[in-house]
Design goal:
Low-confidence stretches: none
Helix content: 40-55%
Number of helices: 29
Largest sheet: 9 strands, mixed
Strand content: 15-25%
Radius of gyration: 28 Å
Keywords: Aminopeptidase, Hydrolase, Metal-binding, Metalloprotease, Protease, Zinc
EC number: 3.4.11.2
Distance between the termini: 26 Å
Structural class: alpha+beta
Family: Belongs to the peptidase M1 family.
Bound molecules: O-methyl-L-tyrosine, zinc ion
Protein name: Aminopeptidase N
GO molecular function: alanyl aminopeptidase activity
Mean pLDDT: 97
């Protein structure tokens, strides 16, 4: 497979071109002589020709390898290098191939393949990193048995790990030692892993349901052992949950997690040897926030659940990525919900997940990078680890569960593993298994149409309208669905949309409990009989489908839902709709017209929520959080980012001042949560207390009050955990109070040796509200700070991404300086780490919606990147699509 054409332009790979490999690799024996400057890799493979393939050459992938020797059945063999491929012809039907190469881990700033982080060797092979370690058929449908011999200096690399079981270890001459690992399971190359360095482990032995013993280990650097308890507990909870919910047990004697501070993504599910970004492992109450604790639990769960959904059953090709990722996100979301003791906490988790979907995935689905959950083509697969593949993919799985029921879905999973254990399969295979296990379900009846969720990009719009016939006591709901065009797909066929609906009476009584309507036509009508009064419909309860629901609610109806809906998701949604409506009206109003940004009704509704003793703090915090600037921007035809920012800030300020007394009370009521525990209830109280402080500091800014900023500084100093401390710091920084500088300095001094906390320190400043264009100069200054390094992805994200991708009010400057900064950083990062650069390059995806002068300046900045010679195909694909 050639990645660039004759002109050197990257070539797209198409799903329809899939063909099984011409050869299979059955066994792989790897020997590593580990040296940061030059690591030697001896790779002995048993290979056989695929019976279905004709006499094609063997084409092995390679990337930045130095090739020293090639032997076929122990003899020198003729071969050629074509682009990045090692090509051999005239091979026997079955043979042993030996390839000897070297690579340079210390120079590997891409962090793909074998790299060094803080004197420790790590690997990252998904999606196509194994070819940077050795020549191979580096594609997920080639599954082999691996044995790995590692040799290294015992003093510098005392711990030597790979997949599977340690079968032998010992000393060698010259202070070196060795370890041999054998993986009992066949696997694709992207699941290979190796770690070597000075590490320590928290260990725990557990017994599975069947009585099997397992050794669990969490490896970190020596000073971090006290931050591994939560990750270990999360792993144990994951094991217990997967057995209980899906009957899936751990299939290994030993399961290891290793943390590295240099990592492109969150974590990686290598068989038996998960490698994690430290951000998703390390936590203690002094250094990690509640959000960190929750993220660790869900990422540890996610990687563990991949052991079945990804590792035991993997993807046939990378177009099927959502087969493992959508399903595994669904599983980790269900896991986190099931761990919540209370229904309200489960609803909070669902709202948080939907917020991410709507504020990140919906824009992706409406922009130049829009792609189906199962894409049809790509240039660089790393660009397709997207919120569409992950989060929308999870929604597709959730809709299947809604259509077949929870037990039906579990039965479908069972059938999926019965059919496909040990195989590399497709999204079709998965959907077929769920359908076949539920022969009488709507999913099975509608399967070909349902699968449009895999093939059609774009977020469907569902327009609903209701009529009430008082004489007949019938309420009628009519739906019209449509889906906007996306790149390469101008016309869409109707989707299967499960719509959970309930009906509420004007007084708040529930007239009809939740029913699932299945909308399949472009236009469709449903009647509800025996409805005693004109109801307020509660539509799309629990966000039962990833669509934009349009219903012409009156403010009064939304207030009814906010006060009375039995579905907490739609209660929250009613407040979001009211907030969004207020924002749109203020954006449309002539600037400076003097109209209040929030109606009294809205403020009073928020007051009622804040003071309602029956509601959880976490839920209140979500209801009182206004729709984000990106979410508001998505609803507009054309976007003036400064106007959106100004309006949202004005709304925040109004809520802060109008509810001053209630915020004070909320702070007092929720400030003390006792001994630290990251459970949802205590975390929710801390979140609301933190929001109260932000509001009180913001109100103080408007009124000139110094009491609350002073109290906030005191809270910052006295805090017993990172959540309270960081929330106080955030309140001072985001209100722009003079005390912020002092608090920031002391925060840095307190945590100077804690990289993850210093990331927070950077991110808070780069993400701070802009006051007179002051954030960009600050960001430039932060990049000169001795703690800053652009090579470390977490640090680059904390400064550059926090500014360019998460601070619209500061980034979209009328003088275009933000965009120039962005394009400079994309270019700079591209030479170091193309994956990180390409993510940053997504920052102006929605440029064509901007009003002038932003639109022209943004386009120019993108074109400036696209014009660079030698751009990686990662970044080139992103900017080329943005300009189309
Ligand atoms: N499969 C991992 C995500 C992942 C993908 C690519 C990586 O390197 C470029 C690393 C991790 C997951 O879903 O957790
Ligand atoms: Zn995953």
């Amino acid at each position: 497979m050639q990645l660039r054409d004759i002109q050197g332009q990257p070539v797209a790979i198409h799903r329809e071109d899939y063909a099984p490999p011409a050869y299979w690799i059955d066994t792989v024996d790897l020997t590593f002589d580990l040296d940061p400057a030059k690591t030697r890799v001896l790779n002995r493979m048993r290979i056989r020709r695929n019976a279905d393939a004709s006499n094609q050459p063997l084409r092995l992938h390679g990337d930045e390898l130095n090739l020293a020797r090639v032997l076929v059945d122990g003899q020198g063999a003729s071969f050629r290098i074509e682009g990045d491929q090692l090509v051999l012809e005239n091979l026997p039907d079955a043979f042993e191939l030996e390839v000897f190469t070297t690579c340079q881990p210390a120079k590997n700033t891409k962090l793909m393949g074998l790299f060094v982080s803080q004197d420790t060797f790590f690997t990252q092979c998904e999606a196509e990193g194994f070819r940077r370690i050795t020549y191979f058929l580096d594609r997920p449908d080639v599954m082999a048995s691996y044995s790995v011999l590692m040799r290294a200096s015992k003093d510098q690399y005392p711990v030597l790990l790979s997949n599977g079981n340690l079968v032998e270890e010992g000393d060698l001459a010259d202070g070196r030692h060795f370890a041999k690992w054998v993986d009992p399971f066949k696997k694709p190359s992207y699941l290979f892993a190796l770690v070597a360095g000075k590490l320590v482990a928290r260990e725990q032995r557990v017994k599975g349901r069947s009585g099997r013993d397992h050794l669990l280990q969490v490896y970190v650097r020596a000073g971090d052992l006290d931050k591994t308890e939560h990750a270990m507990n999360s792993l144990i909870r994951s094991i217990v949950w997967d057995e209980a919910r899906f009957g899936l047990s751990l299939d290994l004697d030993r399961f290891m997690i290793v943390a590295t501070s240099d990592f492109n993504m969150g974590a990686m599910e290598n068989k038996g040897l998960n490698i994690f970004n430290t951000k998703y492992v390390l936590a203690n109450q002094a250094t990690a926030t509640d959000a960190d604790y929750a993220n660790i639990e869900s990422v540890v769960g996610h990687e563990y659940f991949h052991n079945w959904t990804g590792d035991r059953v993997t993807c046939r090709d990378w177009f099927q990525l959502s087969l493992k990722e959508g399903l595994t996100v669904f599983r980790d979301q269900e896991f986190s919900q099931d761990l919540c003791a209370e229904a309200s906490a489960r609803a909070v988790k669902r709202i948080e997940d939907v917020r991410v979907l709507r504020s990140v995935q919906f824009p992706e689905d409406a922009g130049p990078m829009a792609h189906p959950v199962r894409p049809d083509s790509y240039i660089e697969i790393s660009n397709f680890y997207t919120v569409t593949i992950y989060e929308k993919g999870a929604e597709v799985v959730r809709m299947m569960q809604t259509l077949v029921g929870r037990e039906g879905f579990a039965a479908g999973m069972k059938l999926y593993f019965e059919r496909h254990d040990g195989q590399a399969v497709t999204c079709d295979d998965f959907a077929q298994a769920i359908a076949d296990a539920n022969p009488h379900s709507d999913l099975t009846r509608l399967l070909p149409q349902f699968k449009r969720w895999y093939s059609q990009a774009g977020t469907p719009r569902l327009k609903a309208r209701g009529t009430y016939d008082a004489a007949e006591r019938v309420y009628t709901l009519h739906f019209d669905q449509s889906c906007p065009p996306t790149p390469g797909q101008s016309n869409k066929d109707p989707f299967v949309i499960p719509v959970n609906v309930g009906l509420i009476g004007a007084s708040g009584r529930e007239l009809l409990a939740t029913q699932t309507l299945v909308v399949t036509q472009a236009g469709e009508t449903f009647d509800f009989a025996g409805v005693d009064e004109e109801p307020v419909p509660s539509i799309l309860r629990g966000f039962s489908a990833p669509v934009v629901l349009e219903f012409d609610y009156s403010d009064e109806q939304l207030l009814t839902l906010l006060a009375h809906d039995t579905d907490p998701f739609n209660r929250w949604e009613a407040a979001q709709r009211l907030g969004l409506r207020a924002a749109m009206a203020a954006i449309d109003a002539a600037p400076g017209a003097g109209a209040p940004v929030l109606s009294n009704d809205f403020i009073e509704a928020m007051r009622r929520v804040l003071t309602d003793t029956s509601l959880d703090a976490a839920f209140k915090e979500l209801v009182l959080t206004l729709p984000s600037e990106t979410y508001i921007a998505e609803q507009l035809e054309t976007v003036d980012p400064q106007r959106v920012h100004a309006v949202r800030e004005a709304m925040r300020a109004r809520l802060a001042t109008a509810l001053h007394a209630e915020w004070q009370q909320a702070f007092e009521d929720n400030r003390d949560t006792g001994a630290y525990s990251p459970d949802p209830r205590s975390a929710g109280r801390r979140a609301l207390a933190g929001m109260a402080l932000v509001s009180l500091c913001l109100a103080a800014r408007e009124s000139g009050d110094t009491v609350w900023p002073g109290k906030t500084l005191q809270r910052f100093k006295d805090a017993g955990n990172m959540t309270d401390r960081f929330n106080a710091l955030h309140a001072l920084v985001s209100s722009g109070h003079a005390l912020a500088a002092q608090a920031l300095a002391s925060f840095h001094a307190m945590f100077k040796d804690e990289a993850l906390v210093i990331d927070k320190w950077f991110a808070l400043q780069a993400g701070a509200p802009d006051r007179g264009g002051d954030v960009l100069p600050l960001v430039r200054q932060l990049m000169k700070h001795p703690d800053f390094s652009i090579k470390n992805p977490n640090r680059a994200r904390s400064v550059i991404f926090s500014y360019c991708s998460a601070n619209p009010g500061a980034f979209h400057r009328p003088d275009a300086a933000g965009y120039v900064f962005w394009s400079d950083r994309v270019i700079e990062l591209d030479a170091i780490n193309p994956q990180v650069a390409a993510r940053l390059a997504r920052g102006l995806d929605r440029w064509s919606k901007l009003v002038e002068p932003y639109r022209g300046a943004a386009r120019e900045a993108i074109a400036r990147i696209a014009a660079r010679p030698d751009l990686s195909k990662d970044t080139l694909e992103v900017v080329t699509r943005a300009l189309q």
